[in-house]
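Morning. Coffee machine broken again, so started the prediction first thing and wrote up yesterday's gels while waiting. Chain of 190 residues, entered below exactly as on the submission form.
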Amino acid sequence: MLLDFSKLDATSIYKLISNTVTPRPIAWISTEHNGITNLAPFSYFIPLSSEPPMLIVSIGKKEDGSPKDTLANVLNGSKATINFVSKELKDVMSQSAASLPYEQSEFETFEIKSEIPLNNYPKMVKGTKAAFFCRFVKTISIEGSETTPCLLLVEHAYYADEIIDEALHVKLDNVGRVGSKFLVDGSLVL
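Came back before lunch.
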């Protein structure tokens, strides 16, 4: 089957891309504003380069058209902590996708345990096996897009001792996004 994307609606294109570029690890991003730490998952997330260590995450808008909290926070100078999701954290990560008021923290609302390994970055989800501590670089404009791609520079990384060896080989089993489902241990789950 050959499909012409210029003749498909945005929902169909999202469905096709999100079910083809798989599995994509979920960027579970914590950011801060006025002492409040927000936490939200994003499925349009991928590494961009190693030198410099750059990632890109695309962030959509709220239903009212305003920027999502994560985007608003990084545009206002917040650094970002990207937590990787293991199967043990899948359910609480799904809860944190709920739309909450800007002044309400997902950490507090859903009683998500946290820790602060680096003082100049937002909290990290306790129990995550890996996290990147990033600085926002810039957004990229895409004509006609409802999402805002953000370039993030990875400045530090955390790895649980049991998933990394002395040669820096990482054995990480992330929950990945596959369309509207998650890939856990090679199996699709809701």
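The longest strand covers residues 148-159. Going to sketch it on the whiteboard this afternoon.
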